[in-house]
Structures are given as C-alpha cells and as structure tokens.
Amino acid sequence: MFDWLHQRDGDPADKNVVLTALVEVAQKRGAGADCALTCILLALWPGLDAIRSRAIRQKQGPCEEVAADLLARAVQSVRNLRLCCVNRIAATILANVQRDMIRASKRESGKQTLIVDIDPERTPYAGSDASHAMILEDDLRRVVGRDADLVMRVAIAGCSQAEAAADLGLSHDVARKRYQRALGKLRQHYDA
C-alpha cells in the first residue's frame, strides 16, 4: 500500500480515498485509531521528511526538536482535519504542518529580537516606572523605528495626534499616517 501511495503516477483520487478512510478511523480514537494514524504518517513520510529537511536547513531548531515538532504538528493536523472542507488530504496536511512550523519559527525569532541590551548606567532601579518606560521605548524603536516617539506620546502619554504632531514639528496629516503605519507594524510584529 505504501509503495502505491508513494508513487508519483497513479490516480490521486484513489489515493485520496484511502487517506480519507485512514483519517476517519484515526479521528474516531477507537480500536485501530493509532494504527490508522501511523499508516497516515508513513504514507505522508516523503513529504514530511522534505519539510523536516527544509526546516533543518533554515535553522528552525536542532534536528531532534524539528523532528518532534513536525511529528506533533502532523498528528494534530490529522486529528483536527475537517474532512468536509478538504479536497486533497495529503496536500492539506503537509501544507498545514509546513505553514505552522514557519509561523512558529517566525514568532520565536521575533521574540529573540525583543531581547533588550540595557546599559546598566542608564537603567534606573528595576521596579521603577522609568525602567519600564525605557524598555518599552527601546522595544518600540526596534519595531517602528523613528515613529516610536509619536506612538509613545499618543498611546502612552495620552496626547492627541494633533498635539503630538505639533510637539514633533509635523503636520497633523503626516502624524496621523505615520501613527497608523506604526500601529500596523506593531500588529504585524506581534501577530507573526
């Protein structure tokens, strides 16, 4: 069966019927569910191995962690697959696993960029409001760049966009657009 499923030629619809039946059994969690899940993983192994190799080449983590993450995501994808919404079982599972691994890697690398190097001479005692404000401002500068002052004035200090624009020597329209762009960057950064 695996030789037939791994062949490039052959009717994809027939292969999809077999994978659909295996997914149905795997999702019931009754007798044979683990066996069906194992069969699905073996049937998808060439694609899963390609995803694993790409993740290792892209340095998404150590080999053992990448393999464990891949397996966990593949099992979760099979268990949560909504058969009524899927046309091609193999392509959907592989795409879901790869997409989720890429998103997790981006999220992790985004967290790493937020690690702050603070000059001890410049740092007030750790519990003070000034300390928190400095860390927030440093993080904002990393994400939105020159518009960090604008965001701090509007979102933190409570100034209107017009007041912040006047303080920074900008027109209200320019400040409004830059503030909207900065918020978009923040959303994108923290959603990734």
How would you describe the overall organization of this protein?
This protein is mostly helical and 192 residues long. The chain folds into two domains: 2-110, no CATH class; 129-191, Arc Repressor Mutant, subunit A, CATH 1.10.10. 74% of the residues lie in helices and 0% in strands. Helix 5 (63-80) packs across helix 6 (89-113) and helix 9 crosses helix 10.
What is the secondary structure topology, with strand pairs?
Layout: H1 2-6, H2 12-28, H3 33-43, H4 45-57, H5 63-80, H6 89-113, H7 129-144, H8 148-156, H9 161-168, H10 172-191
Helix pairs in contact: 2-3, 4-5, 4-6, 5-6, 7-8, 8-9, 9-10
Number of strands: 0
Tell me, rounded to a whole number, the average pLDDT: 81
List the uncertain runs. none
Q: Give the SSE string.
A: HHHHHHHHHH
Q: Main sheet?
A: none
Helicity level: over 70%
- What is the approximate shape? elongated
How much β-strand is present in the residues?
under 5%
**Tally of separate domains:** 2
Annotation field: number of helices: 10
Radius of gyration: 25 Å
Can you tag this structure with a few keywords?
about 190 residues, mainly alpha, Arc Repressor Mutant, subunit A
Entry summary:
With 192 residues, the chain is mostly helical.
